């Protein structure tokens, strides 16, 4: 309203009474702005210095608007040096007050955040960059430094830094964050409900105490990460890989930072025994297809090229390298069932469609790392499940079209609830 009135004054074609009314309305609107601003400042955590100047600049604008109303209403010769100076001063005060108001609501860098690159360079503005941790080993990630502070810096540090300590809170260093603000500590390790930092960022966005007061709020995964960090003790130097991580948190870390904390199988973390190339060539020439299963290619997947495994298999030096053995639809001799006990690193054994019976499985010593065994279409019964319960790492058994009964499955899962039995429809 003030700007419209100033423009009409400049044009000079508006009557005195109309201008007087416009200055009076401008004064009233300034008073209303002061009142609403005062209400908004109560209980807020805006920077005190900026709030002080914004308030008094607003009061000054209202006072000058009143003076200009009085001059317009009661002074015959309105266009004098004094009224001209008041109008210039009003423009200056309005600009300064608006700028500081913009800083309060949008942050100190609001003018350059959306500016072209060359203006940002001139202003020395370096916005926080999106964090990509994909090049860092997960075991090297520290929860606070790498996962929590980046989004706090991006979304909270504009108002809570060494120069602009809104609410007397500075989050730009661990020491200052632990000191808290005017209301005391903002992070209570292990108690997310009492942690003011978390409470503020999860308030309704219409609440005057919602944080951040300007800019983009924390995303769902950022809030989930913050909550998880506080609930687990709010440690500042603890490595992330040492903390129990729900699937939701692993998903959030992957989406925010492009790093995968999904537990990797042991054969991807261990280099494994070096392969004897001569033994590998001899094994392949003996009728087996062999392919690498790890980055180092020291772990192997093996399957026979034929279906008759009557002759004893000589795994030789490769017995510690074989982690997947596919013997589906083959005829396996008793001797070869016994030979399977040599494969201490075997994680998956496929016997589906083979001549396997319960008695044959009893010839295989419990394999320490076997996780999955496929017995689909074999002649096993509940006795096989009872024996397989002794395999310490077993997680999955496939028993479609076998003689396994629901009672046998229930008995197994009573002993080993961690084993999943896929029985299909017989």
From TrEMBL:
Transmembrane segments: 20-40, 52-72, 84-102
Keywords: Membrane, Transmembrane, Transmembrane helix
Transmembrane helix among keywords: yes
Domain Cytochrome C Planctomycete-type: 156-212
Stored InterPro entries: Cyt_c_Planctomycete-type, LRR_dom_sf
Protein's recorded name: Cytochrome C Planctomycete-type domain-containing protein
């Amino acid at each position: 309203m003030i700007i419209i009135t100033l423009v009409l004054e400049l044009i000079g074609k508006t009557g005195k009474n109309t201008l007087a009314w416009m200055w009076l309305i401008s004064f009233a609107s300034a008073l209303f702005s002061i009142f609403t601003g005062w209400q908004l400042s109560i209980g807020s955590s805006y920077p005190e210095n900026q709030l002080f100047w914004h308030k008094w600049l607003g009061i000054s604008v209202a006072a000058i608007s009143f003076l200009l109303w009085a001059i317009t209403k009661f002074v015959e010769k309105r266009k004098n040096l004094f009224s001209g100076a008041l109008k210039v001063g009003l423009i200056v005060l309005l600009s300064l007050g608006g700028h500081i108001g913009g800083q309060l609501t949008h942050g100190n860098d609001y003018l350059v955040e959306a500016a072209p690159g060359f203006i940002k360079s001139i202003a020395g503005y370096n916005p926080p960059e999106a964090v990509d941790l994909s090049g860092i080993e997960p075991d090297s990630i520290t929860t606070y430094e790498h996962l929590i502070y980046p989004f706090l810096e991006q979304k909270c540090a504009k108002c809570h830094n060494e120069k602009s300590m809104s609410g007397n809170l500075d989050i730009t260093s661990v020491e200052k964050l632990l000191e808290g603000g005017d209301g005391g500590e903002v992070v209570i390790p292990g108690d997310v409900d009492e942690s003011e930092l978390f409470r503020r960022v999860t308030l309704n966005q219409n609440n005057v105490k919602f944080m951040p007061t300007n800019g983009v709020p924390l995303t769902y995964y950022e809030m989930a990460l913050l909550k998880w960090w506080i609930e687990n003790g709010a440690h500042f130097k603890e490595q992330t890989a040492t903390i129990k991580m729900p699937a939701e948190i692993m998903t959030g870390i992957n989406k925010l930072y492009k790093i995968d904390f999904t537990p990797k199988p042991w054969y991807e973390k261990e280099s494994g025994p070096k392969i004897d190339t001569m033994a590998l060539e001899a094994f392949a020439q003996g009728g087996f297809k062999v392919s690498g299963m790890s980055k180092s290619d020291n772990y192997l997947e093996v399957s026979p090229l034929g279906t008759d495994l009557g002759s004893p298999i000589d795994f030789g030096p490769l017995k510690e390298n074989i982690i997947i053995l596919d013997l589906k639809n083959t005829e396996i001799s008793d001797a070869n069932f016994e030979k399977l006990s040599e494969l201490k690193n075997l994680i998956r054994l496929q016997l589906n469609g083979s001549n396997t019976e319960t008695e044959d499985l009893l010839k295989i010593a419990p394999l320490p790392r076997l996780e999955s065994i496929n017995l689909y279409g074999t002649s096993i019964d509940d006795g096989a499940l009872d024996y397989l319960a002794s395999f310490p790492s077993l997680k999955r058994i496939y028993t479609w079209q076998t003689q396994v009964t629901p009672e046998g499955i229930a008995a197994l899962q009573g002993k080993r609830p961690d084993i999943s039995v896929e029985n299909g429809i017989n």
